[in-house]
Design a protein that fits this description.
- This protein has helices at about 5-30, 45-60, 65-95, 100-125, 125-130, 135-140, 145-155.
- The protein has one domain (about 5-135).
- The protein is an all-alpha fold and about 160 residues long.
Length: about 160
Amino acid sequence: MKNFSTWMLLMFVLMFWAFRVLVALFSSFGSEAEGFAGIVPFNSTMEIILIFVVLLCVLLIIKRKILGAVIYLIAYGSYFGMDAFNYIKIIISGEVISAQNMLGVFLSIIGIILPIAVLLDMLMDKARIANPKDKKTDWFYQNENFDREFDERADRNNYRL
């Protein structure tokens, strides 16, 4: 994870994850109508399952595994996708929806765009493809013990000109 964009996307993923944790906590402790800042989960059981799935996906994304980004996209796409589609259908038909529902639409769209951006970032990351882990050479080039040995040997040889 050498790119600034990758770090920023991961920070947005973690902030959105923490926000969804707060939504799930407030909806489980409070009444279902209130939620967190007026936001209630679509399905409380699925929300709690997604919290743990996304936590696993974040760990895989940190390790730069494409599987983590794909699982993240499938999980959030299936959870937020149908809700965003239903709201967009209502907006296109011309019906008036409340400000609370508009906030739900906004969060659903963020929930869809964020995994797509993470997957595209993983697919377009040139460092992941250009510098893969190679066990045949990494022992030599990434070995600090060899560097320390070489430094100590160089210090004992006091060559004078």
